[in-house]
Design brief:
heterotrimer, A: alpha/beta, Rossmann fold, five-stranded parallel β-sheet, three-stranded antiparallel β-sheet, 4 helices, 8 strands, 30% helix, C: alpha/beta, TIM Barrel, eight-stranded parallel β-sheet, six-stranded mixed β-sheet, 12 helices, 20 strands, 28% helix, globular
């Protein structure tokens, strides 16, 4: 069992800060009915908390990006794929996309591709609990809980849903 | 060298889908779960996912079919595959080497999947045995042998309505003897573990030794329907009237046709299914086919999601050892 | 040319011999068994030490495909394959492409066989013209031309009246009728035994009753007409019991079984293995045991290859569309020997089922024209090493047909020399 790098209270604190940050951004942009969408699985846990803290009117949406992975032909079908659910149309709506860790950027690319297949959103804001180096695509988060400096073989993982816990694991 | 199971790869994953027989329970459940995710794709503005982009799917139909062909084509297109349709005239029999020659030509054009329908039992197995290792074969109906995707979409439909399979009593009514759908349904329902599975027909339409597949044979429709949760009616081919198997359509309808009065013998919340195309007034009354308990149209729309699931799962495998990518 | 076959174990069931004695051949005829005949001096010696010396094998049923099917096989290729398998006499049944209903066809087949010189081919004459089951064939003429018996091949004689007349006429000519017992209506469209396998695979079934109903009809007609009859390649246990009863009642009926029927069942079809598509179909395990028991009890006298060589395409088709049949010449001896290995038969009994007994059915035995190594008989001899194990491989088959469900099987016993009327037609030794 890897050592947690952040205490549970710290995570909830991080998410509260993210919520404050998001609130001021949405207000500045005069967004009223933002649609928050969490990416399965970790992103959805974070999104659920943000959704409650922000008191958004629209129900939370969820995305499973298995059908949009760019490594499908290499690693195959995810056997635990779940349906994506968006409660309302994304067309002309402001989307808050939430994920747990931003690393290569490929998951976010896949998620944005999927969102666009539901319609043309007005804008997308990206919020992540953690971000680390290793971007392979020109994608940045607008709201970041915490930045991690990691070695080449280290990965940061979120476990949950109760309690949420971030840990650093060695990967080959 | 022949593999132990032709339709699985060396790691036990589905490489071809040729028959339900030999699929593990969890494998069927995985397919149904995946199909569940594809259902929502149909509700979106862009009804397409990029999973099979760059892959080529060939629909090889040696036997006429509109609906199955269309749903396979739609499924492939919604997965962003390129789709090629080859209809081979049934009268000009393509046999032996010429059939395999054709396959190898198609492979040389970098095709990745063959969806095969053929009037002879075993055709899909034959093709699967001779294709290049990276090619997947989906059986879209071979003779009286199997129609696995139809059975899977029926399982999907049953699960959506009934949830669990274990407590269910299912009656399959009609021409069991010549029906590939019936054989695949029997394998699927016994694998998923329904509590009772009845096949209902006169002896002329029941194949010998069918009990060995794990079904109860019932010759009386009333007894077959009593207490059923799911009633699956099979299409009766008109040519059965010729081979001395049945005296007349009228007598068949009066003894084995599903009418509202007969359906009342089943559970009040029983669903009625039919793989289509329907012969109204032969095996099923219009009022039942179009009635509140009928889920026949839903079967059709579920067929696309289930076929998307099967196609993406067979093509979406990391190559196993010995397979070229 | 005088030959002495020395040091072998001589098994000649027709004469009750199983001992280590020499065999002496002079001018194509057996000149002496054991003792060297007076004035005999061998021009050559065959050292059969450790090998078994027995009469040349007689195969009651082999399709040679000529004339008409030369693209698949020829009399030359198939008789050469026969020689390599220890077979000296082949019985060739009529089929629609070569109905053997004219003396010209009989002459052609015999001529080609003589030309190739590898094995003797005995044609079965047609029972009805063109095998159409309507008009009687010219059986007396066919007999004169050299047909050893008559048969309608795999074609049914649907009319019971025609069958009765055909049997009556054959009886008058002293001809044995070879019967393929299959009710054409029950078998129509079928390609596998009707049972658990056919229902699983969705293959149209051929019920056991297709055989037993035909056997029942023919037995009634045999009783009525008094014809001598032989049932070819029985497939069901029930038919064997019916036959045993008929033999007990004194009817002049005999039967053979195809070697593959003694080893395979419908389960071997697996998922549509077309190599197991045969006619009559492979039936259940119970049937296989019944056939084995029938052979043991003597109800079934002989084992045949039911040889049907095919080109590769014939089996490269969906099961129902594939051609039925097995290329069986080269597995006849090892599969029959295996019956002795498994203890079903003694070794002499196993050898009798492919030598003495088929010779008896064909009436060759009494004339010394096969199935015996008695002094004065024609020197048709098979010498084989009973010990070596070998794997049946397609590329090693001599027959033009490589269609066999036994490919990859490990078989035991290998022919070293075959002599046809004293001439070596095959040998692996010097």
């Amino acid at each position: 069992m890897p050592e947690p790098v952040t205490e549970q209270d710290d995570i909830e604190q991080l998410i509260r800060q993210m919520a404050d940050d998001l609130r001021s951004r949405l207000e500045a942009a005069r967004v009223r009915d933002a649609l928050m969408v969490g990416i399965h699985t970790g992103g959805l846990w974070v999104a659920e908390r943000l959704h409650t803290l922000l008191g958004l009117e629209q129900a939370l949406g969820e995305l499973d990006i298995s059908f949009y992975r760019d490594d499908f032909s290499r690693i195959g079908m995810n056997p635990q794929v779940r349906p994506s659910r968006l409660p309302v149309s994304v067309a002309e709506r402001h989307i808050v996309l939430v994920d747990d860790i931003l690393h290569t950027g490929r998951t976010i690319r896949a998620a944005m591709n999927e969102l666009f297949d539901y319609g043309r959103p007005a804008a997308i804001t990206l919020a992540v609990l953690g971000e680390r180096s290793g971007r392979e695509l020109p994608i940045q988060a607008d709201v970041v809980g915490r930045h991690f400096d990691l070695g080449e073989h280290e990965h940061v993982k979120l476990s949950g849903p109760e309690p949420l816990q971030l840990s650093i694991v060695e990967a080959p | 060298m022949r593999r132990h199971s032709l339709q699985h790869d060396s790691e036990g994953r589905l490489h071809h889908l040729l028959t339900i027989e030999g699929l593990k329970r969890q494998q069927i459940v995985d397919i149904l779960d995946t199909a569940e995710s594809f259902i929502s794709v149909g509700d979106r503005q862009v009804r397409k996912v990029p999973l099979l982009r760059g892959k080529t799917v060939v629909n090889l139909f040696f036997e006429a079919s509109t609906r199955t062909l269309t749903t396979f084509e739609l499924a492939a297109k919604r997965l962003s595959a390129d789709v090629l349709k080859i209809n081979i005239n049934t009268s000009a029999t393509v046999k032996g080497e010429s059939l395999l020659d054709m396959l190898h030509n198609l492979e040389a054009m970098q095709c990745d999947m063959f969806v095969v329908r053929h009037a002879d039992s075993g055709a899909a197995h034959l093709i699967a045995r001779h294709v290049a290792p990276h090619v997947s074969v989906i059986n879209a109906g071979d003779g009286s042998h199997a129609h696995p995707t139809q059975a899977l979409l029926d399982m999907f439909t049953i699960r959506r309505w009934k949830g669990e399979f274990a407590p269910l009593t299912v009656a399959i009514v009609g021409d069991i003897k010549h029906s590939r759908v019936a054989r695949s349904l029997i394998h699927a329902l016994t694998t998923l573990g329904v509590s009772a599975l009845r096949v209902v027909a006169p002896k002329t339409l029941i194949p010998a030794a069918v009990e060995s597949l794990g079904v109860h044979v019932v010759h009386d429709l009333d007894a077959g329907l009593r207490g059923a949760d799911v009633v699956i009616m099979l299409r009766l081919q008109k040519e059965r009237m010729q081979g001395a198997m049945l005296p007349s359509e009228a007598e068949y309808f009066s003894t084995y046709g599903l009418t509202e009065e007969k359906l009342a013998l089943a559970k009040p919340d029983a669903i009625v299914m039919h793989p289509g195309p329907i012969n109204r007034g032969v095996e099923i009354a219009s009022s039942v086919a179009d009635g509140a308990q009928s889920v026949i149209l839903e079967q059709v729309s579920n067929g696309i999601a289930v076929r998307m699931a099967v196609m993406s799962m067979t093509l979406g495998r990391a190559p196993a050892e010995g397979e070229g990518a | 040319m005088n030959i002495s076959i020395q040091h072998g174990r001589l098994i000649d069931p027709a004469n009750g011999i199983d001992s280590h004695i020499d065999l002496h051949i002079a001018n194509g005829v057996i000149a002496g068994v054991g003792q060297v005949p007076d004035g005999f001096s061998a021009d050559s010696h065959i050292n059969a030490g450790g090998h078994i010396v027995c009469p040349g094998l007689i195969d009651l049923r082999a399709r040679l495909r000529e004339p008409g099917g030369e693209s698949r096989a020829t009399i030359a290729t198939e008789t050469a394959a026969a020689a390599s398998a220890g077979i000296t006499t082949l019985v060739c049944p009529p089929d629609p492409s070569q109905p053997i209903d004219t003396p010209a066809l009989v002459d052609l087949i015999r001529h080609r066989a003589k030309q190739s010189g590898h094995a003797r081919v005995l044609p079965l004459g047609a029972l009805t013209q063109g095998l159409a089951g309507q008009q009687l064939a010219e059986m007396a003429t066919l007999k004169q031309a050299g047909c050893v018996a008559v048969s309608n091949g795999l074609q049914a004689v649907e009319s019971t009246r025609v069958m009765r007349c055909a049997m009556e006429y054959a009886a008058s000519q002293g001809l044995t009728v070879f019967l393929h017992a299959e009710d054409p209506w029950l078998a129509a469209g079928g390609c596998a035994h009707e049972g658990a396998v056919s229902v699983r695979l969705g293959l149209a079934g051929i019920p056991e009753a297709a055989e037993t109903i035909a056997v029942a009809r023919e037995l009634q007609l045999i009783a009525q007409t008094g014809v001598r009859a032989h049932f070819c390649h029985l497939s069901s246990a029930r038919a064997v019991r019916m036959l045993a009863r008929a033999q007990y009642d004194g009817l002049p009926v005999s039967a053979d079984v195809a070697a593959h029927q003694l080893y395979l069942t419908d389960m071997d079809i697996g998922y549509f293995d077309t190599q197991c598509h045969v006619r009559p179909p492979l039936r259940s395990q119970r049937d296989r045991e019944g056939l084995r028991e029938g052979l043991k009890q003597g109800t079934i006298a002989a084992v045949c290859s039911d040889h049907q060589p095919h080109g590769a395409n014939a089996k490269l088709a969906p099961f129902p569309a594939s051609e039925p049949g097995i290329s069986g010449l080269e597995t006849l001896l090892p599969l029959t020997l295996r019956l002795a290995g498994e203890g079903l038969l003694s070794l002499p009994e196993a050898i009798a089922s492919i030598t003495q007994r088929p010779a008896g059915i064909l009436d060759l035995l009494a004339h010394g024209e096969g199935g015996t190594l008695a002094t004065g008989a024609r020197a048709d001899v098979c010498i084989f090493d009973p010990e070596p194990y070998w794997e049946l491989r397609a590329d090693a088959l001599q027959s033009a047909g490589h269609n066999s469900p036994f490919l990859g099987w490990e078989l035991k016993g290998r022919v070293s020399c075959t002599l046809l009327a004293g001439e070596l037609t095959y040998h692996t030794c010097d």
